[in-house]
User: What shape does this take?
Amino acid sequence: MIGNKRWWWSKEPKRSYDVVIVGGGLHGMACAYYLARDHGIRNVAVLERKRIGFGGSSRNTEIYRINQRAPEILPLYILAVELWKNLSAELDVNIMMWQKGLIAVAHNDMTVDSMRMRHETFKLMGIENEQLTPEELKKMVPRLDISDKADLPVIGGYYHPPAGSIRHDAAVWAFAKGCERQGIDLCEGVEVTGIGVDKGKITGVKIGFGVISAPVVLNAAGGWSATIAKMAALDLPIVTLSMQAMVTEPVAPFLDQAVASETYFCFGNQTIKGDFVIGSHLDPWQTFNFYNTYHFASDLAYGWTQLFPDLTNIRVMRTWNGLCDMTPDSSPIMGETEIEGFFVDAGWGYFGFKSSPASGKIMADYIANRKRPDKIRHLGIERFYGGQLVQETTYPRP
Assistant: This one.
């Protein structure tokens, strides 16, 4: 809201729509926005159980990048960066995009080899990336410790210029404003309790006051996507894991890039006001709770101060966590399911924030044209039945 002018209004849902989207995060709102903008489909409702942006859209570390391992999904992130660049002007909201680049550091030969393989993939796909020695890393980030005093000394790394940060709340506000302008109904406080299916086709969704009829339903519920799918008797190969994060007190700015260690598994960036937004690995147990643990805080503080010993006495101001919907291959599920009219955009893990405009645009194209876009031809749910996994990570899951 600016002064007395609201950017969007929460609305009571109507009894019928052309498309119902379950989940009021960035993926759901982006799909609704592009359905209206690109295809003229405006009789759309976005249903959110809590408030717009409640889930992972506002519980992340704000970093976007293209440095994925699997070449099948890299085109998604290339498209996402191009869309992010134009959204401030298009939606008339400053999303605070800062294309600062990402530096990743390696502490052992295995990680260096992994980085080299990824670098060759990037070269083949035209993605800018530079491999660096410890001395070259030190020139870019003078406060980075590359000495042999660290428990795991830095022995190499890379610089990924396309990466950067976007203010997550601003991105949520921007897409909400865009949906309002396009005539989309954003319905907060509306919980979906059932999915209507008749003779293999979607008929709508059940909510508190009854039924909303719709021939198309998109499941974009993030950490709750498997729960929503079960309402249609569909099992998604997804578990929901927690990723915790923290923000420190502000200090004089010295870090112009995002930084990640794949061995300590910590990553973060310094914001324009001087605080550090940093995150760590996923918790190895399924949960739907939003809580933080001492185990997380100590691991993250250890890893980050190994990289930047000067920050040893910096104070933590707050912590939070987000729920990550993880598939067995750590790649998303995108497309129509065996139930006609029931679409899924889920399983993004900790990659969902940065992909949101691309996933929204592609799912809007799919729903409008009923033809699978080429960029997601590998990402249908059927890959899990035919042994055609898109192996993004080998992160251990329960």
In short: Residues 74-91 form the longest helix (18 residues). The first strand starts at residue 19 and ends at 22.
